[in-house]
Amino acid sequence: MTSDVANFVPERPEDRHFMAAAIRYAMRNVGRTGTNPSVATLIVRNDGDGRPPRIVGRGVTALGGRPHAEAGALAEAGDLARGATAYVTLEPCAHHGRTPPCAEALVRAGVARVVSAAADPDPRVDGKGHRMLMDGGVAVTPRVMAVEAARTIEGYLTRHRRGRPGVTLKMALSRDGRIGIRGGGQVKITGAVSDAQTHLVRARHDAILVGAGTALEDDPRLDCRLPGMADRSPARIVLDPNLRTTPDMTVARTARAVPTMIATYQTSDPERRAALAAEGVAFVACVADPDTGRVALPELLEDLAATGITSILVEGGANIAESFLQARLVDRLILVQGAVEIGEEGVTAPVGVEAARERFALLRQDVFGDDHWFDFACEGV
After folding, report:
1. Left if phi > 0, otherwise alpha if psi is -120 to 50, otherwise beta: which for 31?
2. How far apart are CA 378 and CA 361, in angstroms?
3. How far apart are CA 177 and CA 156, in angstroms?
4. For residue 38, how many other CB atoms are within 10 A of its CB?
5. Averaged over 125-136, what is the pLDDT?
């Protein structure tokens, strides 16, 4: 809205410093806030007495999604919020739900200025939070480090903009561009340091998805095995249209400990379905794409979004990876290149590092032990 833009307050030199701190704090609960995004709020005072600005209140979206970050930060700041600046990684909400709008709470607390990062595409918010703040006499500086903040809540943003969860495709590649040996089970490609990083990525997603082939060959656990983070394991989804998964496999035997869903055709074996259900496995229906004969992924993702899933980490094999890439459903691509070579008997990756550099935007590159980690943004693939 043009009138709003005219009333926005320019960015100040210290704003990026505090917003960067807020974005880091928001990572605390990523993957644990249900359908709500993990947002952080910092309340910062500058009394103009020669002392540097100081944080007097911090908040992050609580587990399950409530209360919101602003409520926690205002509660911690108390009376010190009056006249202070609030740094919020997402535009404060403007709608009445089980609690009053966060924008209204900031006005009532006497906050003088709000600096926000990412815009909220939820039609109940989308500009209305800023409008409510300004109508209440609060100065607003929007879109400070908006791109960086959006990366921490990309699943939430994708769900609102596209009606599906955000998808991260991760593959481990050998130095010669292979991802394993067909029919040969697991092949160790990466080392302990990057493996730990993989478990951290798992913890930051709502669900992890593999195909039936990977489940049958590797019998994986698909959990988070970092010390003290077992409860951060994502839900598990096995893409198994013909229901080849058996009750004695790990994902089935542990389904009561870690939520597990199998995407399968309605016509799949009813006896096996009943046996898996007895272990605690849930099911989501899928249909075949009439053109490819493969599972229709867009429809499946829409159904998964309806269950409350906002982010999915795809760790399947070559066929699953290729399907998601061809359907243009990958939002982030993580390639981890190890030092080992597999040779001609290996399965060629559907996309390698050099091809990814040409097609996608490289967000960052890291080295973990002997492994090279490449993180690409794939919007618009």
Report:
1. left
2. 7
3. 32
4. 26
5. 94
Quickly name the fold that domain 164-377 has. Dihydrofolate Reductase, subunit A (3.40.430)
Query: Mind listing the pLDDT tens digit for each residue in 217-267?
Result: 889 999 999 999 988 999 999 999 999 999 999 999 999 999 999 999 999
Taken in order 58, 232, 295, 328, is the CA torsion positive or negative? positive
Tens digits of per-residue pLDDT, 76-92? 999 999 999 999 999 99
- Give residue 13's Cα distance to chain centre: 30
Q: Looking at this protein, which amino acid is placed at residue 36? A: N
Looking up tokens 């202070």 gives 84
Helices and strands per DSSP (H, E), number in the chain: 14, 16
Active site residue 70: yes
Burial group, residue 5, by CB count within 10 angstroms (0-12, 13-18, 19+): exposed
Predicted pLDDT at 2: 36
Phi, psi at residue 355, to the nearest 5°?
-65, -40
For the chain, first and last CA: distance in Å?
Answer: 30
Cα Rg of the chain (Å, integer): 23
Residues 272 and 279: their CA atoms lie apart, in Å, by 11
pLDDT in tens, 50-71: 889 999 999 999 999 989 999 9
Give the pTM. 0.92
DSSP H helical ranges for the chain: 2-7, 15-26, 69-77, 102-108, 128-135, 146-152, 154-162, 192-203, 212-218, 250-253, 270-278, 297-306, 318-326, 353-359
Give yes or no for a contact between 221 and 238, defined as CB atoms under 8 angstroms apart: no
Residue 1's pLDDT band (cuts 50, 70, 90) = very low
pLDDT of res. 50: 80
Q: What residue spans define the domains of the chain? A: 2-152, 164-377
- Within 8 A by CB and 6+ apart from 248, the residues are none
User: How many angstroms separate the Cα of 321 from the Cα of each of 170, 173, 317, 328?
Assistant: 8, 13, 6, 11
Whether residue 286 has pLDDT greater than 50: yes
Asked if the bond preceding 227 is cis, omega within 30° of 0, the reply is no
Yes or no: domain 2-152 corresponds to CATH 3.40.140.10: yes
CB-count burial class (<10 Å; 0-12, 13-18, 19+) for 222: buried
Catalytic site residue from 11, 70, 354, 358: 70
